[in-house]
Automatic annotation (TrEMBL):
Entry superkingdom: Eukaryota
Disordered as annotated region, ranges: 188-209
GO biological process: vesicle-mediated transport
Membrane spanning residue stretches: 66-84, 90-106, 118-138
Family: Belongs to the PRA1 family.
Protein name: PRA1 family protein
Function: May be involved in both secretory and endocytic intracellular trafficking in the endosomal/prevacuolar compartments.
GO CC annotation terms, alphabetical: endoplasmic reticulum; Golgi apparatus; membrane
Subcellular location: Membrane
Segments of skewed composition (Polar residues): 199-209
Chief location of this protein within or outside the cell: membrane
């Protein structure tokens, strides 16, 4: 739970509700909540070398989407450590972090301005630019540069080596990434007709792989 915000409740509510555009995935695109840190620091078996350039790009896009808030918090922590011996810059950083806290980390949903949803990425970029500019004005541009390079390298390495297999939020996100395909009304040659499970009595759809 984060400031009265329950991650599981948000995800279950998102999966159950349709957005005005008819896409349940759109709300996730505009607001990527803080993921549990255990997903970030997973078992070593959850890491592997990318099999191809396409696999690398796929991993980077997925991780930068769903771990966006975690990555931002990690980079801010690295930046914070670089300012420990610069009290003036530290004060400026803490003041700017208040904006980060209320506009990005502490929100219960997408940021809405004048009845319009502001994309999470826009908020992230705007706050990042403000942070860098304010700190550069305190003459710690080298600290900022080194921190950004270190943070970016860590994020890129994690996103590249963390496998995608167990990271989908729901079927809609998996379908958005192209891992699931749904047959149309006419049916497909690879799909088997529904059958009833003898144990549960529920309908089960068979798929030929």
């Amino acid at each position: 739970m984060r400031g009265g915000y329950n991650y599981d409740a948000f995800m279950s509510g998102t999966a159950a509700a349709e957005t005005p555009g008819g896409s349940r995935f759109r709300s996730l695109a505009s607001f990527a909540p803080l993921r549990p840190w255990r997903e970030l620091f997973a078992h070593p078996s959850s890491y592997s070398l990318p099999h191809s350039l396409a696999d690398l790009v796929s991993r980077l896009r997925l991780k930068l989407g769903i771990f966006r808030m975690n990555y931002a918090l990690a980079m801010l922590f690295i930046l914070f450590l670089s300012l420990l011996w610069h009290p003036t810059s530290m004060i400026v950083f803490l003041l700017v972090f208040v904006a980060w806290f209320f506009l990005y980390f502490f929100r219960d949903g997408p940021l809405v301005v004048f009845s319009r949803i502001v994309d999470d990425r826009v908020v992230l970029v705007a706050l990042s630019v403000v942070t860098v500019v304010c700190l550069v004005l305190t003459h710690v541009w080298l600290n900022v540069l080194i921190s950004c390079l270190i943070g970016s390298a860590i994020v890129a390495l994690h996103a590249a080596f963390r496998v995608n297999d167990d990271l989908f939020l729901n079927e809609d996100e998996a379908a958005e990434s192209g891992l699931l395909s749904f047959a149309g009304g006419s049916g497909g040659s690879g799909n088997l007709p529904p059958r009833v499970s003898p144990k549960t009595g529920s309908s089960v759809v068979g798929v030929n792989l």
